[in-house]
Amino acid sequence: MHVPTSTWQKSSYCGEGESCVHIAANAPRSTVHLTESADPTNTTLTITPHAFRALLRTLKTPEKETHRV
Q1: How far is CA 20 from CA 17, 23, 28, 65, in A?
Q2: How many CB atoms lie within 10 A of CB 24?
Q3: Could you give the CA distance from residue 64 to residue 59 in angstroms, rounded to a whole number?
Q4: Beta partners for 35?
Q5: Start and end of every DUF397 domain (predicted)?
Q6: Integer Cα distance of 35 and 18 in angstroms
Q7: Helix (H, G, I), strand (E, B), or coil: what is residue 16?
Q8: pLDDT per residue as tens digits for the range 16-52
Q9: Whole-model pTM?
Q10: How many helices (H) and strands (E) does the chain have?
């Protein structure tokens, strides 16, 4: 899926010159697009806002809480 470059935002956790995650939101269709700057194939992951919130929640959860037995 092609997303205009003007809609992409770089992660605030990305340093200069590093491989970075970029995000673009598509309000009319309620989708979120993710890509990684070092990916030579320019693959874009398209997910719902609900799935994006779940991803962020998982990434923010300390590792010891995500590996409960």
Answers
A1: 9, 10, 26, 26
A2: 19
A3: 12
A4: 22
A5: 7-60
A6: 14
A7: coil
A8: 666 888 888 876 678 899 998 888 888 889 999 999 9
A9: 0.68
A10: 2, 4
Beta strands in the chain (DSSP E): 9-10, 21-26, 31-36, 45-47
Please give the sequence-ordered ranges of beta strands (E in DSSP) within 1-41, or none if there are none.
9-10, 21-26, 31-36
Q: Establish how many alpha carbons lie within 13 A of residue 44's alpha carbon, considering only the half-sphere containing its beta carbon.
A: 15
Confirm if 22 and 35 have CB atoms less than 8 A apart: yes
Q: Quote the DSSP letter at residue 11.
A: -
And the tokens for 41? Answer: 């194939």
Q: Which two tokens stand for residue 4?
A: 């205009």
